[in-house]
Amino acid sequence: KILVIGANGQLGSVLIPELRKKYGEANVIASDLQKPKQSTGLFEVIDATDQNKIDDVVKAHKVNQIYHLAAILSAKGEQNPLQTWDINMKTFFNVLEVSRLNNVQKVFYPSSIAVFGDRADLNCTTDEAYLNPATVYGISKAAGENWGQYYFLKYGLDVRSIRYPGVIGYQSLPGGGTTDYAVDIYHKAVNGEAFECFLKPDAALPMIFMEDAIRATIELMEAPKENITVRTSYNLAGASFAPQDMVEEIQKLYPKFEVSYAPDFRQHIAEKWPKKVDDSNARIDWGWKPKYDLKRITSVMVSELKKQYQKKSDDSK
Ligand code: VAH
């Protein structure tokens, strides 16, 4: 049985249906701080800062895999640094301890390109680059990677991790990250609204389409244990591009789409993140290969969001 903690988030809301399709409805338990109204399937209300609650659910459902997707992201995390640290670390320690004590077979831990800072070669950042993260979120993810490796080395717990780039998808909204602009821009274009970007036009970052991110996650978790050579976290990327590249691609479909730039504190965060990452270890160890570039991302985002907004307006009639 698989338990997903943080199932209501940007990744969790797409991973749950995918896992249920693959492993069966009855084998995937979603959990988060509250049960969404429209939620279907098994759901447990879990505040992941409560170790006993996680332990009860793991025992009750005989959980043997946990995906820990709960965390406070980079931008939001800067509002209250010590609280961000406490929540991001406490929740992961709870997952590691409950997994160790209940012989959970596999744990997935999402890391991020946020673990890198200006001491790495940000033009092409490898798995092994030096980590000097400049956000609390990045610091907590770098620490979490090492805790995951520690539980593997000391207790044999099979913790696997991916350093996600900015994730772009039409199924869910991001929650407080520095790459959130890359989802919002499509919603504004499809709704014929102007878009104000909180990064500079040339702020290139590694990005990935939701379908690629979810497929990579499941491929990593399904890879034979002996193939996994990176026990901190694997770099992963779909494509790297800047806001101006997205605008150019979108204006091919929406020539009148207007964009203005008002860089804020998130520009300073982005400047210390990689422009491009080297994900060759993922390609070698578990056959990773992205399927979506900016052109394909744009065409799928636009066509799916058009359908969503059309349905919304039909339903409201
Ligand atoms: C964030 N979307 O911006 C997340 C992610 C690399 C980006 O970690 O914080």
TrEMBL record:
<dbReference type="InterPro" id="IPR036291">
    <property type="entry name" value="NAD(P)-bd_dom_sf"/>
</dbReference>
<dbReference type="InterPro" id="IPR051225">
    <property type="entry name" value="NAD(P)_epim/dehydratase"/>
</dbReference>
<comment type="similarity">
    <text>Belongs to the NAD(P)-dependent epimerase/dehydratase family.</text>
</comment>
<protein>
    <submittedName>
        <fullName>Nucleoside-diphosphate-sugar epimerase</fullName>
    </submittedName>
</protein>
<feature type="domain" description="NAD-dependent epimerase/dehydratase">
    <location>
        <begin position="2"/>
        <end position="235"/>
    </location>
</feature>
<dbReference type="InterPro" id="IPR001509">
    <property type="entry name" value="Epimerase_deHydtase"/>
</dbReference>
<dbReference type="Pfam" id="PF01370">
    <property type="entry name" value="Epimerase"/>
</dbReference>
<dbReference type="GO" id="GO:0008743">
    <property type="term" value="F:L-threonine 3-dehydrogenase activity"/>
</dbReference>
<dbReference type="GO" id="GO:0006567">
    <property type="term" value="P:L-threonine catabolic process"/>
</dbReference>
